[in-house]
Design a protein that fits this description.
- By secondary structure, the protein is an alpha+beta fold.
- Helix content is about 25%, strand content about 25%.
- The chain is built from four helices and 13 strands.
- It is elongated, with a radius of gyration of 29 Å.
- The chain starts with a helix and ends with a strand.
Length: about 220
């Protein structure tokens, strides 16, 4: 489920992928950290009514992302150490590391969620993992309509139910509309059959069903 659809009526958030985050907690503010994805809340969805080319924290009322995501590739990128330290200094509340292919090599689990507590990240248990400060949960699933049966990360509600994608919602809406039309057509056909049977019975009794009078 895309946040563009899920939060389409909200304007107080920004989500992006592979965008540089410029900050002043490192040795050089001109060197950004680039997560695979991040979410900030309490900022304009479109800054000055334009799309962002990067995320500069000191121009965003010093609001850091509340959520960052790193996808581990064949070449380790400091997801479990250097980047984790950067996000902790930034004050990123939730940090997710998704490592479906190389988790055994790295000695970790395929899916890990960390929460910043007193300046240090603590591993969170359970999946999906509910993040109350964001109002979303995150976890893994396999989409029913995916012909390749791929595992994906997706958003969940507080009950642990996966938010359905826009395509799934539209598919279900179309299916419900087809079912409604079929039900109405069936009811109309049944009503017509009942009317035909009644008319036939009236004729047997010598009554013209059109005129409502006895037939001589």
């Amino acid at each position: 489920m895309s946040l563009n659809y899920l939060w389409r009526h909200r304007e107080d958030w920004f989500f992006s992928g592979n965008m540089g985050i410029y900050h002043i907690t490192g040795s050089n503010p001109c060197i950004p950290v680039v997560p695979n994805a991040f979410l900030s809340i309490g900022v304009d969805r479109r800054k000055d009514r334009k799309s962002r080319r990067n995320y500069v924290i000191w121009t965003e009322d010093n609001i850091p992302p509340i959520f960052t995501l790193e996808l581990v590739s064949h070449k380790p990128g400091g997801e479990y150490d250097s980047k984790m330290a950067i996000y902790a200094r930034l004050g990123v509340l939730y940090y997710v590391i998704y490592n479906p292919e190389f988790w055994q090599r790295d000695g970790h689990d395929p899916f890990e969620v960390y929460k910043l507590v007193d300046g240090a990240y603590q591993r969170q248990s359970g999946e999906p993992c509910w993040m109350p400060e964001i109002g979303l949960g995150i976890g893994r699933d396999r989409l029913i309509d995916d012909p390749f049966d791929r595992e994906v990360l997706t958003w969940y509600d507080a009950r642990g139910q996966r938010y359905r994608s826009e395509a799934e919602v539209e598919r279900d809406r179309a299916a419900a509309e087809r079912q409604r039309a079929a039900t109405e057509a069936q009811r109309a056909a049944q009503a017509e059959q009942r009317a035909d049977r009644l008319a036939a019975r009236l004729r047997e009794l010598g009554i013209d069903p059109e005129a409502g009078e006895a037939v001589d």
